[in-house]
Design a protein that fits this description.
Layout: H1 3-10, E1 15-19, H2 24-35, E2 39-44, H3 52-65, E3 70-74, H4 80-89, E4 94-99, H5 113-134, E5 139-145, H6 169-188, E6 192-197, E7 200-201, H7 210-219, E8 224-226, E9 233-234, E10 237-238, H8 239-251, E11 263-268, E12 274-275, H9 276-287, E13 293-295, H10 311-317, H11 325-340
Parallel strand pairs: 1-2, 1-4, 2-3, 4-5, 5-6, 6-11, 7-10, 8-13
Antiparallel strand pairs: 9-12
Helix pairs in contact: 1-8, 2-3, 2-8, 4-5, 5-6, 7-9, 7-11, 9-11
The structure holds nicotinamide-adenine-dinucleotide.
Length: 343
């Protein structure tokens, strides 16, 4: 086990607030923390951006298996009255925050920009304000994204690279979260950690993401649309590896030496670049059917390639992604068939 995670397991902690607990990464993170014996308060609005039943099933899974330690509240992160109430009523007191709730998705931010600002910008301020007024918290970990690297052409992406050229509003709101965390850490000495996730995939994954859509269409014998004529390159990261990084970050708050700001950013990726065409071949292999492919151009707002430099996370969080793409895609396709009772 990762040495930081072991420390967290042994440490006395209060309630850990996990926002976005009905979401893909939030569900897996809550589950991992529950397996360590932690008390989790899950918060999620169950937004209808994608199938709400999948979100409800994730919550039900946690409620059924961890009735003692898991509780769930349906609320919007930007609703400061509701969040303040649940924070004050939490028992034991909230000592850690894992803020994963977001309006995710690059493409949808062209259609519904307000929901990105409401959730990602206002929601983030509300949580930081709660940590400020109802804290102290031992650690505040929040999700950022590889999309903040935007038009950056230098590969691999490192935390030191410029991130002031976002190519979509989604990325701009996430960059905003990083800046807000920096200012709150500076002013109120709240220890914060921002995690830039790189294309996360795995069981219980998101229906708006390529792996889910491709698997579904291939199994149903429907064509799939592939952007940038199949030349997209992505650093796909398996969800268990991401969760290990999230929990290790939670276990290792930035120490406040009174001089530097107790805020740190980490890339969490697999640090391997996959060509989309190869990814599709793996889905075909495990779905047992050939894909019918419509190649189209680049989508506005999307980046053609991503690759993480994870030196910092390796060194400071003991982060070490283990799951290879072949195994990860197989696990996803197996879950998909089982969950949807298909194939
Ligand atoms: N999945 C990825 O590849 C990826 C990559 C980079 C960053 N991220 C970030 O990681 C985090 C988790 O992403 P995910 O893939 O699990 O997405 P997800 O959409 O499955 O989970 C987000 C959850 O937040 C909830 N939510 C949305 N608006 C809310 C609101 N106003 N109040 C409360 N809850 C709200 C949704 O209902 C959902 O369950 C997000 O912050 C996302 O931006 C994800």
């Amino acid at each position: 086990m990762n040495k930081w995670i072991k420390q967290l397991q042994q440490a006395e902690t209060g309630t850990i607030l996990v926002t976005g607990a009905a979401g893909f990464i939030g569900f897996h993170t809550a589950k991992a923390l529950l397996e360590l014996g932690k008390k989790i308060l899950g918060l999620d609005s169950l937004s209808d951006y994608y199938d709400v039943n999948l979100k409800k099933d994730r919550v039900r899974y946690l409620e059924e298996r961890y009735p003692e330690n898991f509780s769930f509240v349906k609320a919007e992160v930007q609703d400061r009255v509701a969040v303040s109430k649940l924070w004050k009523e939490a028992h034991p007191k909230i000592t850690h925050v894992v803020h994963l709730a977001a309006q995710a998705g690059v493409r949808y931010s062209l259609e519904n920009p307000y929901s990105y600002v409401d959730t990602n910008v206002m929601g983030n301020v509300v949580l930081l304000e709660m940590a400020r007024h109802h804290g102290p918290v031992e650690n505040f970990v929040y999700a950022s994204t590889s999309s903040v690297y935007g038009a950056n052409e230098k590969m691999p992406f490192s935390e030191e690279d410029t991130t002031d050229r976002p190519m979509a509003l989604y990325a701009a709101t996430k960059k905003c979260d990083e800046l807000m965390a920096e200012s709150y850490s500076h002013l109120f000495r709240i220890p914060t950690i921002g995690l830039r996730f790189f294309s996360v995939y795995g069981p219980w994954g998101r229906p708006d993401m390529a792996l889910y859509i491709f698997t579904k269409n291939i199994l149903e014998g429907k064509p799939i649309t592939v952007f940038n004529h199949g030349e997209m390159q992505r650093d796909f990261t398996y969800v268990d590896d991401i969760v290990e990084g999230v929990v290790a970050a939670l276990a290792r708050p930035v120490k406040d030496d009174g001089k530097s700001v107790p805020h740190r950013i980490y890339n969490l990726g697999n640090s391997n670049q996959e060509v989309l065409a190869d990814y599709i071949k793996l889905i075909e292999k495990y779905a047992g059917r050939k894909a019918e492919i419509d190649y189209v151009g680049m989508q506005p707002g999307d980046i053609p390639a991503s690759l993480s430099d994870i030196t910092r996370a390796r060194k400071e969080l003991d982060f070490s992604p283990k799951v290879r793409i072949e195994e990860g895609v197989r696990n996803f396709v197996d879950w998909f068939k089982d969950y949807h009772k298909v194939g």
